[in-house]
Specification:
Strands 5-4-2-1-6-3-7-8-9 form a nine-stranded mixed beta sheet. The radius of gyration is 27 Å and the shape is globular. By secondary structure, the chain is an alpha+beta fold. 34% of the residues lie in helices and 16% in strands. α13 crosses α16. The N terminus is likely disordered. β4 and β5 form a beta hairpin. The protein folds into three domains: 132 residues, no CATH class; 126 residues, no CATH class; 234 residues, no CATH class. The protein has 20 helices and 17 strands. It holds the Pfam family HET.
């Protein structure tokens, strides 16, 4: 299946159309699509008999008894026939497999599955039914969470080993169960094989499975012929620290050159943690509605999930984030992806009452062609690289810095231009980047390997120290740079020394906490959340921004922005730059800070401005600029 963002809108529509190759009248008509659903009654049968059943229509408010199916659609062209009302009916092989697994030999089973029970070609029905999905799943008597078949093509894996992994998860949830050798070296190898296969199940990557997993009162994971109830699996992260003796023995074994044995297990923890968090909230409230910052954090935590239609990156999460959205409160498939994402971005800015939604973009983000300020959830799969969340680290700095202190708050009305492509903000110019220092390290050690941003940061610090030792900034002393002094270099060097102390503190758990260490650790986590560059502004200020900052970019402090932003100027009204949004390298910047239109690069740290030093008591002339 194509990755998210790889299909055009027409391609998405074609793919969805091919999922439903049945005649228009194959399903009964819904008289009230806002409250009625179709159910498929699966007839009993043996393993060898064909799958048969009938459709019926039920009203949710009447409390019908049915079970839901959560699964990955799979390849739309790979279909099998079932019999519905005596006629052939095509469904994907993935759905066929789960129907075959859950079918009883004696009892009829009423089930609901999206591709089976929603007419995918009827856009209005689809919109209404999609908006009902949280209701549909929350009112079912049980949900089958189909992970797919156990991949026995991996020569090292067997059903017994896969079952061993699930037994371990259940053991952590109830330690009165028998310890089946889980804490031995042999047990760790078997667990590695089981979790390595478990984490590859595509079900974890699908965006709709988030609400399908957490909404039902009762749910059961199916992995081929194996089963495990929902609670132990999604609470795996919370339960794991209970096994302290096993962890000590594993650690002693693991440090003998087998660090890979922990990787898949920890990845499963990262995947299930948001599901556990949401399920806990839902148990305490009917719907786990989140506020602005929580909504943003949740969107970033789930952004690596796949969706055939990239708009579903938002629509599938609406039940949890509606409280923060005013312009995007239903699954409107009549507007394009850029419109959906831009509306959500503006809603989040207004709800957060800050420019926080513009900050903390991930290293692997695949930006929209335009506009640059729009949060883009069409991205690569991030979880497989165990990439950290820069947004979470940036949130940590929101209580530490307040660069816009002393200037008026942003006016949150009329933020968007008439065409919806430009974000209108106010602020003042700090300086143009005249020099950048980059880390020589690679971003990744190779496809599928962990991004080691802490390593690139250490290399960047070494590069900075080498520049200082070699007096590499002497050329700037001849220029009129009033802030460029040896004291400024020493102050910036002291910041990096603090980061090295913070790293040592994190590595040595027995080290006493020094005054201000928590702030240093928070700053360190932000610095090593992506590949960073050091830069020097035209006024002589040192700063740190993401790897894509370059000479000619400008630093701005904008209203309601707790950190400065690096912006890339668009030279004039007719020049849009190249396909990457860059300005012509030959451009002069005599009019730095006087452009009207910019593209967003990233948030940044700039020496001597982070606490409002430039804003308080100054006579800065605030200007209105457009982010394009």
């Amino acid at each position: 299946m194509a990755g998210p963002g790889q299909l055009s809108l027409s391609g998405v529509q074609d793919a969805i159309h091919h999922l439903d190759k049945n005649e228009p009248g194959a399903r009964p008509l819904l008289q009230d699509p806002a409250r009625q659903i179709r159910l498929f009654t699966l007839w009993p049968g043996t393993q060898e008999s064909p799958i048969q059943g009938v459709f019926s229509v039920a009203t949710l408010d009447d409390g019908p008894d049915y079970q839901c199916i959560s699964y990955v659609w799979g390849d739309a062209s790979d279909t099998k026939d079932i019999t519905v009302d005596g006629k052939d009916f095509k469904i994907t092989t993935s759905l066929f497999s789960v129907l075959w697994r859950i079918r009883s030999e004696q009892e009829y089973l009423a089930v609901w599955a999206d591709a089976l029970c929603i007419n995918q070609d009827d856009h209005e029905e689809k919109r209404v039914q999609v908006d009902m999905m949280f209701d549909i799943y929350s009112k079912c008597s049980n949900c089958f969470l189909w992970l797919g078949e156990v991949n026995l093509l991996d020569g090292e894996l067997s059903l017994d080993i896969a079952r061993y992994g699930l037994d371990f998860i259940e053991y952590l949830d109830d330690r009165e169960r028998e310890d089946n050798g889980f804490s031995t070296a042999e047990g760790l190898v078997k667990l590695h094989l089981a979790f390595r296969s478990l984490v590859k199940c595509q079900w974890w990557r699908r965006i709709w499975t988030v609400q399908e997993c957490v909404a039902p009162h009762t749910a059961m994971f199916l992995w081929g012929p194996l089963t495990i109830s929902r609670s132990p699996l999604i609470q795996f992260r919370e339960n794991f620290p209970n096994v302290t003796s096993a962890r000590r023995r594993w650690t002693a074994y693991n440090y003998k050159g087998n660090k890979r044995d922990f990787e898949a297990m920890f990845t499963v923890m990262l995947i299930v943690q948001p599901l556990s968090m949401l399920r806990t909230q839902i148990k305490s409230r009917p719907q786990a509605l989140m506020g602005g910052v929580a909504s943003l954090s949740f969107l970033w935590m789930t952004c690596d999930h796949q969706a055939l239609d990239p708009r579903d990156k938002i629509f599938a999460l609406l039940p949890f984030i509606t409280a923060a959205l005013t312009n995007t409160n239903s699954s409107n498939y009549n507007i394009d992806c850029v419109q959906v994402y831009s509306r959500v971005t503006v809603d989040l800015i207004q709800f957060c009452r800050s420019l926080l939604p513009l900050m903390g973009r991930r290293q692997s983000e695949m930006p929209l062609e335009e506009p640059s300020w729009v949060l883009d959830w069409r991205r690569q799969e991030v979880a497989q690289h165990r990439e950290s969340s820069p947004f979470i680290q940036t949130v940590g700095l929101s209580s530490q810095f307040n660069a816009s202190c002393g200037i008026p708050k942003l006016h949150y009305q009329n933020l968007i231009s008439g065409d919806g492509r430009r974000l209108r903000l106010r602020g003042y110019f700090v300086g143009t980047l005249v020099r950048t220092i980059m880390s020589p390290a690679e971003v990744s050690s190779g496809p599928g390997h962990r991004f080691d941003y802490s390593h690139t940061l250490r290399n960047l610090i070494k590069t900075w120290k080498r520049h200082v030792e070699e007096d590499a900034f002497s050329e700037f002393r001849r220029l009129d740079r009033p802030l460029f002094t040896k004291a400024a270099i020493a102050e910036f060097s002291e910041m990096w020394n603090g980061m090295e102390k913070a790293r040592e503190y994190l590595l040595d758990l027995s080290a006493p906490e020094e005054f201000g260490m928590k702030k240093k650790v928070t700053m360190l986590m932000w610095l090593q959340s992506r590949v960073m560059n050091i830069f020097l502004t035209c006024g002589g200020r040192f700063g740190v921004g993401t790897h894509n900052t370059k000479e000619g970019d400008e630093v701005w402090i904008l209203c309601s922005g707790f950190m400065p932003l690096v912006l890339r100027p668009i030279k004039n009204n007719s020049e849009q730059g190249n396909n990457n949004g860059d300005v012509d390298d030959s451009a002069t910047f005599a009019l730095s800070g006087r452009y009207d239109r910019y593209r967003l690069v990233s948030e940044c740290y700039v020496q001597g401005v982070m606490h409002g030093e430039l804003s308080i008591g100054s006579n800065h002339c605030l200007r209105t600029i457009d982010l394009c």
